[in-house]
Design a protein that fits this description.
12% strand; HAD_2; HAD-SF_hydro_IA; globular; 10 helices; alpha/beta
Protein backbone atom coordinates (compact mmCIF):
# COMPACT_ATOMS: atom_id res chain seq x y z
CA UNK A 1 0.00 0.00 0.00
CA UNK A 2 1.28 3.48 -0.87
CA UNK A 3 2.70 5.60 1.94
CA UNK A 4 0.62 8.76 2.36
CA UNK A 5 2.06 10.25 5.56
CA UNK A 6 5.48 10.49 7.20
CA UNK A 7 6.15 11.20 10.88
CA UNK A 8 9.73 12.36 11.53
CA UNK A 9 11.61 12.39 14.79
CA UNK A 10 13.99 15.35 14.86
CA UNK A 11 17.12 14.86 16.97
CA UNK A 12 19.37 12.15 15.53
CA UNK A 13 16.90 11.49 12.71
CA UNK A 14 16.64 14.66 10.64
CA UNK A 15 19.38 16.66 12.39
CA UNK A 16 22.82 15.82 13.80
CA UNK A 17 21.95 17.14 17.24
CA UNK A 18 22.18 14.18 19.62
CA UNK A 19 25.64 15.28 20.76
CA UNK A 20 24.05 18.26 22.50
CA UNK A 21 21.73 16.03 24.51
CA UNK A 22 24.56 13.69 25.50
CA UNK A 23 25.90 16.33 27.91
CA UNK A 24 23.04 18.74 28.55
CA UNK A 25 21.82 17.04 31.74
CA UNK A 26 25.24 17.01 33.37
CA UNK A 27 25.99 20.59 32.33
CA UNK A 28 22.65 21.77 33.71
CA UNK A 29 23.04 20.01 37.06
CA UNK A 30 26.58 21.35 37.48
CA UNK A 31 25.23 24.85 36.83
CA UNK A 32 22.88 24.22 39.77
CA UNK A 33 25.77 23.21 42.04
CA UNK A 34 24.93 19.48 41.84
CA UNK A 35 27.22 16.54 41.14
CA UNK A 36 25.61 14.45 38.34
CA UNK A 37 25.67 10.67 38.63
CA UNK A 38 28.01 8.79 36.28
CA UNK A 39 25.28 7.04 34.29
CA UNK A 40 23.00 10.10 34.09
CA UNK A 41 22.77 10.20 30.30
CA UNK A 42 21.75 6.53 30.14
CA UNK A 43 18.98 7.16 32.67
CA UNK A 44 17.46 10.17 30.91
CA UNK A 45 18.20 9.19 27.29
CA UNK A 46 14.65 8.01 26.55
CA UNK A 47 12.84 10.52 28.76
CA UNK A 48 10.97 13.57 27.48
CA UNK A 49 12.27 16.92 28.71
CA UNK A 50 9.37 17.06 31.17
CA UNK A 51 10.23 13.60 32.53
CA UNK A 52 13.89 14.60 32.85
CA UNK A 53 12.90 17.75 34.74
CA UNK A 54 10.83 15.67 37.16
CA UNK A 55 13.75 13.29 37.66
CA UNK A 56 16.23 16.11 38.29
CA UNK A 57 13.90 17.77 40.78
CA UNK A 58 13.31 14.59 42.76
CA UNK A 59 16.80 13.09 42.58
CA UNK A 60 18.80 16.29 43.12
CA UNK A 61 16.40 18.30 45.32
CA UNK A 62 16.36 21.35 43.06
CA UNK A 63 13.21 22.76 44.67
CA UNK A 64 12.01 24.20 41.37
CA UNK A 65 8.95 23.74 39.22
CA UNK A 66 9.15 21.53 36.14
CA UNK A 67 8.53 24.60 34.01
CA UNK A 68 11.48 26.43 35.57
CA UNK A 69 13.83 23.53 34.93
CA UNK A 70 12.63 23.05 31.35
CA UNK A 71 13.02 26.78 30.62
CA UNK A 72 16.53 26.82 32.07
CA UNK A 73 17.61 23.79 30.02
CA UNK A 74 16.07 25.24 26.86
CA UNK A 75 17.89 28.53 27.45
CA UNK A 76 21.10 26.56 27.78
CA UNK A 77 20.73 24.90 24.36
CA UNK A 78 18.86 27.63 22.46
CA UNK A 79 21.97 28.94 20.68
CA UNK A 80 22.79 25.50 19.28
CA UNK A 81 19.36 25.18 17.66
CA UNK A 82 19.32 28.79 16.47
CA UNK A 83 22.82 28.87 14.99
CA UNK A 84 24.72 25.59 14.96
CA UNK A 85 23.04 22.23 14.41
CA UNK A 86 22.64 21.07 10.82
CA UNK A 87 20.41 18.59 8.96
CA UNK A 88 21.84 15.18 8.21
CA UNK A 89 23.40 14.80 4.78
CA UNK A 90 20.75 14.39 2.09
CA UNK A 91 17.83 15.26 4.41
CA UNK A 92 16.65 18.25 2.37
CA UNK A 93 16.71 16.27 -0.88
CA UNK A 94 14.90 13.38 0.78
CA UNK A 95 12.12 15.67 2.05
CA UNK A 96 11.76 17.16 -1.41
CA UNK A 97 11.41 13.65 -2.83
CA UNK A 98 8.61 12.86 -0.37
CA UNK A 99 6.91 16.15 -1.20
CA UNK A 100 6.99 15.25 -4.90
CA UNK A 101 5.38 11.92 -4.04
CA UNK A 102 2.56 13.90 -2.34
CA UNK A 103 3.47 12.40 1.06
CA UNK A 104 2.34 14.63 3.95
CA UNK A 105 4.94 15.20 6.67
CA UNK A 106 4.97 16.15 10.35
CA UNK A 107 7.53 16.26 13.20
CA UNK A 108 7.07 14.22 16.41
CA UNK A 109 9.77 15.03 18.94
CA UNK A 110 10.70 15.12 22.62
CA UNK A 111 12.34 18.53 22.13
CA UNK A 112 10.38 21.72 22.73
CA UNK A 113 8.65 23.16 19.67
CA UNK A 114 10.31 26.60 19.60
CA UNK A 115 13.76 25.00 19.36
CA UNK A 116 12.73 22.80 16.44
CA UNK A 117 11.16 25.79 14.68
CA UNK A 118 14.43 27.73 14.94
CA UNK A 119 16.50 24.94 13.39
CA UNK A 120 14.02 24.15 10.61
CA UNK A 121 13.51 27.79 9.59
CA UNK A 122 17.25 28.48 9.51
CA UNK A 123 17.70 25.69 6.95
CA UNK A 124 14.40 26.45 5.17
CA UNK A 125 13.06 22.97 5.94
CA UNK A 126 9.96 24.19 7.78
CA UNK A 127 8.09 24.33 4.46
CA UNK A 128 7.86 20.54 4.36
CA UNK A 129 5.97 19.98 7.62
CA UNK A 130 2.32 20.46 8.53
CA UNK A 131 3.12 20.85 12.22
CA UNK A 132 5.47 19.97 15.07
CA UNK A 133 4.03 17.70 17.79
CA UNK A 134 6.04 17.37 21.01
CA UNK A 135 5.97 15.05 23.99
CA UNK A 136 5.27 18.04 26.24
CA UNK A 137 2.26 18.99 24.12
CA UNK A 138 0.69 15.51 24.29
CA UNK A 139 1.78 14.91 27.89
CA UNK A 140 3.53 11.58 27.24
CA UNK A 141 7.06 10.51 26.36
CA UNK A 142 7.94 8.13 23.56
CA UNK A 143 7.52 5.18 25.88
CA UNK A 144 3.86 5.76 24.97
CA UNK A 145 2.58 5.82 21.35
CA UNK A 146 0.24 8.77 21.95
CA UNK A 147 2.52 11.24 20.14
CA UNK A 148 2.39 9.10 16.99
CA UNK A 149 -1.40 8.86 17.09
CA UNK A 150 -1.70 12.64 17.54
CA UNK A 151 0.68 13.19 14.63
CA UNK A 152 -1.30 10.78 12.47
CA UNK A 153 -4.52 12.63 13.31
CA UNK A 154 -2.93 15.84 12.04
CA UNK A 155 -1.84 14.11 8.84
CA UNK A 156 -5.32 12.61 8.39
CA UNK A 157 -3.81 9.31 7.26
CA UNK A 158 -4.34 5.69 8.27
CA UNK A 159 -1.85 3.68 10.30
CA UNK A 160 -1.12 1.31 7.42
CA UNK A 161 -0.19 4.24 5.13
CA UNK A 162 1.85 6.18 7.72
CA UNK A 163 5.62 5.69 8.07
CA UNK A 164 7.55 6.75 11.19
CA UNK A 165 11.20 7.79 10.86
CA UNK A 166 13.21 7.25 14.05
CA UNK A 167 16.89 6.86 15.01
CA UNK A 168 16.05 5.46 18.46
CA UNK A 169 15.41 1.76 19.02
CA UNK A 170 13.39 2.61 22.14
CA UNK A 171 11.01 4.96 20.30
CA UNK A 172 10.86 2.72 17.22
CA UNK A 173 9.83 -0.25 19.37
CA UNK A 174 7.02 1.83 20.90
CA UNK A 175 5.76 2.67 17.41
CA UNK A 176 6.24 -0.85 16.06
CA UNK A 177 4.48 -2.47 19.03
CA UNK A 178 1.51 -0.20 18.28
CA UNK A 179 1.28 -1.42 14.69
CA UNK A 180 3.00 1.45 12.89
CA UNK A 181 5.41 1.09 9.98
CA UNK A 182 8.93 2.18 10.95
CA UNK A 183 11.94 3.40 9.01
CA UNK A 184 15.05 3.20 11.17
CA UNK A 185 17.67 5.91 10.63
CA UNK A 186 21.33 5.38 11.52
CA UNK A 187 22.77 7.65 14.19
CA UNK A 188 26.13 7.13 15.86
CA UNK A 189 24.72 7.89 19.32
CA UNK A 190 22.19 5.03 19.23
CA UNK A 191 23.59 2.05 21.15
CA UNK A 192 21.10 -0.49 19.79
CA UNK A 193 21.69 -0.07 16.07
CA UNK A 194 21.41 -3.80 15.31
CA UNK A 195 18.13 -4.12 17.21
CA UNK A 196 16.75 -1.03 15.47
CA UNK A 197 17.60 -2.46 12.08
CA UNK A 198 15.93 -5.77 12.94
CA UNK A 199 12.56 -4.29 13.91
CA UNK A 200 12.41 -1.69 11.12
CA UNK A 201 10.29 -2.16 8.01
CA UNK A 202 12.82 0.07 6.21
CA UNK A 203 16.30 1.15 7.26
CA UNK A 204 18.52 3.99 6.00
CA UNK A 205 22.21 4.39 6.79
CA UNK A 206 21.77 7.95 5.47
CA UNK A 207 19.27 9.98 3.48
CA UNK A 208 21.17 9.36 0.26
CA UNK A 209 19.74 5.83 0.23
CA UNK A 210 16.57 4.82 -1.59
CA UNK A 211 13.39 3.23 -0.27
CA UNK A 212 10.31 2.46 -2.35
CA UNK A 213 7.36 4.37 -0.88
CA UNK A 214 5.11 4.24 -3.91
Amino acid sequence: MKIEGAIFDFDGTLYDSMGIWEEVGSIYLKSQGKNPEKNLNRKIKNMSLEQSAEYFNKKYNLNKTKKQIINEINEQIKTAYSEKIEPKKGAAEFLEKLKNLKIKMIIATATDKFLIEKALKRNKLDIYFLDIITCNIVGKGKDNPLIYYKAMEKLKTKKETTLIFEDSYFASKTAKDSGFLVCGIYDKYENKKRELKMISDYYLENFMGNINLK
